[in-house]
Every structure is written in C-alpha cells, then in structure tokens.
C-alpha cells in the first residue's frame, strides 16, 4: 500500500492573540503549510476545533477558512472530538487519502479560548465530558484531574510533589521552542510553592489555555512535488479509540483504557514495538494525564512513571524523550488544536529542523498522542522519516 506522507507544515506562535481572529489564525497556517509543501493544492481540508462555535461564536469553519484561504470549491468541514479534534482531523485526512477518493489533504487545528474568560471557558470545556452528570454538578475538568491525582497518590503511596518531573520536562524543553508560550525552566522548589487550583492539583499540574493554529499537508508518496526542498515524513501507523465518557462509569478511573487500545492499534499498524520509538509526544493537559498515559501504554508500570521521569528516562537525552518542544504545559494548551501542534513539532524533530529544541541523534520515528477529555477519546499516530 502506498505511503501517505506529510510534506507541509504550518503553525502560529501560541499565546493570547487578542488582536487576531479564528479566521486569521486558520488561514495563516493553511497558507504556511501549502508554501512549505511546494505549493501543492489540497483536494480537501479537515479542520479540528473544539470550542470555536461556543467561545468564538463561529461554526462552519470549513467554509470560512477555505474561502478566505482562496480555495473555494474544495471539500472542507469541521471535525470535533473535544481536545483531540485536530488529531481526529489528521486521522480523517489519512483515511480520505487512503480511500482513494482524494490525493491530498490539509489537516488544520485552530482554537481561540481567549474570546471568553474564566468560568465561561470552563463551562464550555465541560461539554467534552458528561455534562448531564458531571458538568451540571460543577465538576470541571480541573476537578476531575484533581480527583485522579488524589486517587493516584493514594494508591501508589507517592508524595504530593511526585508528578513535578513532568512540568519540569515540559518547561525545560520549551526553552528552545520559539513558538512556545512559556520558554522558562522551572525548579522543584518552584513547583512545590505553586498555588493550588484544586487540591492536590497545583498551578504547574495544569496546562494553560491559549490561542493558536497548526496545520499539516499530506499526499501520496508518488505525488510529492519534485521541487520540495525538505524530507517527507511518513505516517506508518494510527489508532483511535474511546472509553466511557464519564469517569464515574469506569471500573477503574486510573486505567486509561482508550490510551491502551489506541496505542496498541497504532503500533500494530506500524509493525513496531514501543522500544523502537525515538521520542513520544504524550498529552500533558494535566501532569496526571501524562503519567497515566505512559502507564496505560506499558511504558511504565503502575505508579512508576513519576520515578522514571525523575531519573531522566523521558529527558531530551533519555531513553524515550517526551514533550520535546514543551507539550501542552509549556507550549500552551490550544485545546482542539493541540494534536496538530504535536504533529508539526514531531515532523520538525524528524526533519532535523527543531532548532534549539532539536533532539540529539537524529531520531527517525515518533509517536504523537492526543486525548479528548480524561482519555475519553484517544488518537495516536506514528511518524517515520
């Protein structure tokens, strides 16, 4: 079966873009990705976004962004899977090309949570969970993550600051990423002094909401433009899975089953074992999510992920680097656009174009994984140079 490859990348700096609209952010990355892809015009555009219709009061992004990017007549629509929306858009693009109906596609992620403030954003975010049984009771995503962390610390007998290595890795790696929102390393002491958001979840355990957009252009290997001036990145495996939406419906809330299924599917499709990965862009919307995901994939045993992180296993020069350009925590949490930021960053690493954030040893293979809600929807892709 012919390879599907990523030939073009686009991303905006992550931040509070008060002066920019969703339209401007989305069109910018579409144009970047097409330019980086030697001008190839996509047959279809799939746009991942979670909150835009609620927070920015704009639906029908397929028409809006495609029109303003100057591509009227192209197939385009929005894909929604909570925070995994743009990862799902990438999945749709791969499936569409694989089906044979189209030859090229753009996957776009765009989000602008700063169009609302405070509780309005949190209320909108709860629509990615079971709103009837969780949201209406006032249980926000931060509260869910706090309950998971509390249960995790109880079961594993770890100290309150055991998860500190995950935001520390993210912030240290973001220093070299010019697109990241927080380019400053943090210390264990700073983590320990951080204010509580929802005990035992502190300020550094949660990724800050931010505006941004990212895009990738895909096509068949046989159709890569001859004037492309950089390596192509193959998508060799993918897997998507869902779990029970409500945490209270799960037999074990600390077992991220959809992560297990999604990751195993992707590895089987790629024909590899986890040991063959050069790095992993894990989802760290909350530090507890990163730990539970690594354990669900069998990379760490139950309660072992924090120790492995503290011992350098996941560092830039470790056995399996994670969050190589800051993750959601330090790059900034662009919610539904986060999955495509992962894809762009992984491609930059594989193309040896990550600048000061570049991994040593020229890695050839990476996994990227995006979670919608508390791992209610999980999308994993495996990329290879």
Quick structural summary:
With 385 residues, the protein is of the alpha/beta class. The chain has helices at residues 22-36, 52-55, 61-68, 85-99, 119-125, 141-156, 165-174, 188-193, 257-270, 287-296, 305-310, 327-331, 338-350; strands spanning 4-11, 44-48, 75-79, 104-111, 196-198, 201-202, 212-220, 233-242, 279-281, 365-372, 377-384. It has a nine-stranded mixed β-sheet, sandwiched between helices. A two-stranded antiparallel sheet has the order 5-6.
Descriptive notes:
The protein is of the alpha/beta class and 385 residues long. It has two domains: 4-117 and 210-223, Thiolase/Chalcone synthase (Peroxisomal Thiolase, Chain A, domain 1), CATH 3.40.47; 138-207 and 235-384, Thiolase/Chalcone synthase (Peroxisomal Thiolase, Chain A, domain 1). 34% of the residues lie in helices and 18% in strands. The chain contains 13 helices and eleven strands. The chain has helices spanning 22-36, 52-55, 61-68, 85-99, 119-125, 141-156, 165-174, 188-193, 257-270, 287-296, 305-310, 327-331, 338-350, and strands at residues 4-11, 44-48, 75-79, 104-111, 196-198, 201-202, 212-220, 233-242, 279-281, 365-372, 377-384. The strands form two sheets. Strands 3-2-4-7-1-8-11-10-9 form a nine-stranded mixed sheet, with helices on both faces. Strands 5-6 form a two-stranded antiparallel sheet. Helix 1 packs across helix 3 and helix 4 (85-99) crosses helix 13 (338-350). It is globular. The two termini are 17 Å apart. The mean pLDDT is 96.
């Amino acid at each position: 079966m012919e390879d599907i490859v990523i030939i073009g990348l686009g991303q905006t700096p992550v931040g509070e873009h008060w002066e920019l609209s969703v339209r401007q952010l989305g069109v910018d990355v579409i144009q970047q990705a097409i330019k980086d892809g030697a001008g190839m015009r996509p047959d279809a555009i799939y746009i991942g976004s979670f909150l835009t219709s609620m927070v920015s009061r704009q639906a029908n992004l397929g028409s809006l962004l495609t029109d303003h990017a100057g591509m009227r007549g192209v197939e385009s629509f929005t894909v929604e899977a909570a925070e995994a929306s743009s990862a799902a858009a990438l999945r749709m693009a791969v499936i569409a090309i694989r089906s044979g109906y189209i030859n090229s596609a753009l996957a776009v992620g765009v989000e602008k949570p700063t169009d609302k403030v405070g509780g309005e954003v949190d209320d909108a975010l709860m629509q990615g969970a079971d709103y009837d049984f969780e949201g209406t009771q006032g249980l926000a995503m931060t509260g869910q993550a706090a309950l998971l962390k509390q249960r995790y610390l109880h079961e594993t007998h770890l100290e309150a600051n055991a998860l500190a290595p995950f935001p520390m890795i993210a912030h240290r790696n973001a220093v070299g990423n010019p697109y990241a929102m927080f380019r400053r390393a943090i210390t264990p002491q700073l983590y320990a002094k951080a204010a509580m958001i929802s005990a035992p979840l502190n300020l550094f355990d949660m990724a800050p909401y931010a505006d941004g957009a990212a895009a990738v252009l895909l096509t068949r290997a046989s159709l890569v433009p001859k004037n492309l001036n950089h390596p192509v990145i193959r998508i060799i495996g993918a897997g998507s899975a869902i779990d029970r939406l409500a945490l209270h419906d799960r037999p074990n809330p600390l077992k991220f089953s959809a992560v297990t299924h999604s990751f195993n599917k992707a590895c089987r499709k790629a024909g590899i074992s986890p040991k063959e990965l050069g790095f992993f862009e894990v989802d760290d919307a909350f530090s507890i999510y990163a730990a539970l995901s690594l354990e669900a994939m069998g990379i760490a045993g139950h309660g072992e992920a924090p120790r492995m992180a503290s011992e350098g296993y996941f560092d830039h020069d470790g056995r399996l680097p994670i969050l190589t350009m800051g993750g959601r925590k330090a790059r900034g949490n662009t919610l539904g656009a986060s999955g495509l930021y992962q894809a762009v960053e992984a491609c930059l690493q594989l193309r040896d174009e990550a600048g000061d954030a570049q991994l040593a040893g020229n890695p050839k293979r990476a996994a990227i994984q995006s979670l919608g809600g508390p791992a209610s929807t999980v999308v994993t892709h495996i990329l290879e140079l």
